[in-house]
Amino acid sequence: MSKSFHLNIGLSDNAIGAYLSLIRNHPVNGSQLSRQSGIPRTRIYDVLRSLKQKGFVNEIKPGVYVPLPPAELINRLRRQHEADLKALEELVEETRNEVDHEFIWTIKGYDQVLSKAREMIGSASTEIYIRLFPEEGVHLDPLLRRAQDREVAVKFVCMRPAPFLESYPFHVVHPESDTIEITLGGRTFDIVVDRREVMAGMFESGREDRSPISWGRNPWFVSTQRDSLRHDFFHYFLHKTYQQKQSLTAEEEVIYQTILRDV
């Protein structure tokens, strides 16, 4: 009985099973390999022929086989797949149409959303605008600090106070932090990276794992969300100066001037 290995390496389950069986015991002939691997004799010779053509087994004398050493097999498969992926990348570049739009995708699943956010932050080279609640911020804080270390400008609007904010020179706390989650019915989650990629949405309270979060590279979507995050900085400044009748601190004045010029 053949076994399913769930490996996508260009080899059938029978081929993988035969190779693994050869590693355990060789040299053997086809009949012996059929018995020890559980692959029917009606199939084993086709499997061996295929493995031999690929160079993964060697027929040391008529009808007797030994496996290619495992380390060499893995190296060959790695080189083959890297070459195939490179070739596919080149074909895509050659054949894709130039378009003036990009589709917007929906991601669901709390872990999947955070994983994509980590990927975006890890790829940032110049700037990250981010607006979120501390519940998500604690998961992304280490990657955001590493981005800052490589001189990526992190501009952070946090929807509630959080200890980790002290690591970010360009941060403000939303002026309605006490009530904003109740008002919205959930926790906003917005990231814009390098003016080219955006993730935006809201984790609905009690339905975080089912909340749809949008992701894309559509230029209008990116530009609109980036402006939305910039305006939340101005919301903070206006609230402090006009509602609270307070002056901006020296640090806040630097942030204000930076955001003002950051069009």
Question: What would you say about this model in short?
Answer:
By secondary structure, the protein is an alpha+beta fold. 50% of the residues lie in helices and 19% in strands. It has 2 domains: 96 residues, Orthogonal Bundle (Arc Repressor Mutant, subunit A); 158 residues, 2-Layer Sandwich (Endonuclease, Chain A), CATH 3.30.870.10.
Distinctive features:
elongated; 263 residues; alpha+beta; 9 helices; 10 strands; Endonuclease, Chain A
Please characterize this protein's 3D structure.
By secondary structure, the protein is an alpha+beta fold. It has two domains: 1-96, Orthogonal Bundle (Arc Repressor Mutant, subunit A), CATH 1.10.10.10; 104-261, Endonuclease Chain A (Endonuclease, Chain A). The protein is built from nine helices and ten strands. The strands form two sheets. A seven-stranded mixed sheet has the order 4-10-9-8-5-6-7, with helices on both faces. It has a three-stranded antiparallel sheet with strand order 1-3-2. A hairpin with a 2-residue loop joins strand 2 (57-61) and strand 3. Helix 1 crosses helix 3 (41-54), helix 2 crosses helix 3 and helix 8 packs antiparallel against helix 9 (250-261). The radius of gyration is 28 Å and the shape is elongated. The N and C termini lie far apart (65 Å). The relative contact order is 0.09. The model has no long low-confidence stretch (mean pLDDT 88).
From the 3D coordinates, which CATH architecture of the largest domain would you assign? 2-Layer Sandwich
Q: What's the tally of helices?
A: 9
Tell me the major beta sheet.
Answer: 7 strands, mixed
Q: Note poorly predicted spans.
A: none
Structural class by helix and strand composition:
alpha+beta
Number of strands: 10
Shape: elongated
From the N-terminal CA to the C-terminal CA, the straight-line distance is: 65 Å
- Count of domain modules: 2
> Helix coverage percent of residues?
40-55%
**Measured on Cα atoms, how large is the radius of gyration?**
28 Å
H/E element string?
HEHHEEHEHEHEEHEEEHH
Indicate the proportion of strand residues: 15-25%
